[in-house]
Amino acid sequence: MTPLIAARRYFWGAYSFSTLGRFVHGMALSWVVWTQTHSPLWLSAIALLSALPSLPLAPVAGSMADRFHRHHILLITQTIGCAIATLTAFLSYCGDLNPYNLAVLALIFGIVTSIDGPSMHSMLVETGETVSQAVARQSLVMNVARSIAPMLAVLIIEGFSATWCFAMNAVMAIVKIPNRTTSEEREESVGVTSRQLFMTYPILREVLPQVACLSILVMPAVALLPAISLKGSELMSFGSMSSGLGFGAVAAAVLMQRNRRIIHHVTTVWTGGWITCIAFAVLPALETVTSQWLCALVAGGALTFALAAANNLVQCKAPDIYRGRFSAMYLAVMLGLVPVGQLILGFASEHFTAVAAVRACAVIAMVLMVLFAFLFSISKAEETVGPD
Fold first, then answer.
1. Which letter does DSSP use for residue 314 in this model?
2. pLDDT for residue 74
3. What sign results for the dihedral spanned by CA atoms 129, 131, 74, 152?
4. What is the phi/psi pair of residue 312, to 5°?
5. How far is CA 93 from CA 88, 160, 280, in A?
6. What is the pLDDT of residues 130-148, one digit of tens each?
7. Rounded distance, CA 215 to CA 136, Å?
8. What residues contact residue 172 under an 8 Å CB cut-off, 6+ apart?
9. Which of 36, 176, 296, 325 is most buried (most C-beta within 10 Å)?
10. pLDDT tens digit sequence for 78-118
11. In this structure, how many other beta carbons lie within 10 angstroms of the beta carbon of residue 247?
12. Which residues are CB-neighbours of 247 under 8 A, at least 6 positions away?
């Protein structure tokens, strides 16, 4: 076994455990906040603070990932993240956790994760695999972790306490993988801004608006699943829809592992996004738990295909010296816009109903995706041939 293959296996093992730890940490954090406050507002506030830094910090984090050695950045951010998780576990063990210090810890953790994201995302394709192999593997790891983390968190909390969920996330493993760029290339990349890259590379203008529609108007609807559950069987309906989304995502990730050509086409982004929009528009109208599960299954699979294809297309077109900024733009759109969508759906639900808000946002998202695809096709036909 060559050193690079050994490093790759260790990297993916460490990444898998770290991803699972973060999801378990998030579940325990939400549970502690809920048991202390019983306030949906506090739950939303903690989630907002965790995700909000990714949008404003994206340009800085992307530039750092291109300017400095990514392994060194990860070593610093993962160490800080480990310290935050350890402090959270210590405060939980001592019984000193409260919503206010949890909010501060969530914000700091969100800042660290925002800086960490582009470097980690870039290193995923520096392990000696092809881009499509790395994207498919990452999607599988993320969705499997997201599916089993809730049950694992429940078992840990019931068997021990939330402290051990935070402690699990404090375990850190970083492996040395060579940076693809040289110090001279990293110096060369300094003068180029994310805006210049967005205007220069057509794939960014074609894909990122599609992802933005899903992030703002569709993905936040997952938080409203309890509100659109069937009356009289709310818990069963909520569990069914959540399970369907998870199983659909995992099934799509497994299929991508077997046939990676699926995520090589921009039509997968459009088709997956449109099917996701249709599924979320139909979901509130269904009247049986089984039909809701099947609809959620389709939505979870289609959304996973759309996001994985978008990620793959962006990474395939990214020069190594700009990969950090490409990753930062994708992550900012995919994750950073979700809090904006949560505010939009929350406001709409308060003034209308959750069912009406989910349906309307899904329909609007689909219309906008079609419009963006049409406008890009026009601009592509008119513009002169440039860098691809």
1. H
2. 82
3. negative
4. -60, -45
5. 9, 11, 41
6. 777 778 788 888 888 877 8
7. 20
8. 18, 78, 79, 81, 82
9. 325
10. 888 888 888 988 998 888 888 888 888 888 988 888 888 88
11. 17
12. 147, 297, 300
Residue 277 CB partners (closer than 8 Å, separation 6+):
214, 218, 362, 363, 365, 366, 369
The number of beta carbons lying within 10 Å of the beta carbon of residue 387 is 9
Residue range 135-163: average pLDDT?
81
The CA distance from 12 to 175, in Å, is 9
Handedness of CA 41, 44, 49, 50 (dihedral sign): positive
At 310-326, the pLDDT tens digits run: 988 988 888 878 888 88
Burial string for 79-88 (b: 16+ CB within 10 Å, else e) reads ebbbebbbeb
Residue type at position 19? T
State the CB neighbour count (10 A cutoff) for residue 107. Answer: 16
Separation between Cα atoms, residue 388 and residue 386, nearest integer Å: 6
Among residues of the chain, what percentage have pLDDT more than 70? 87
0.85 exceeded by pTM: no
The CA-atom distances, in angstroms, between 190 and each of 65, 123, 150, 208, 308 are 11, 19, 42, 23, 28
> In whole angstroms, what is the distance from residue 147 CA to residue 246 CA?
5
Residue 302 or 375, more confident: 302
Q: How far is CA 355 from the centre of its chain?
A: 24
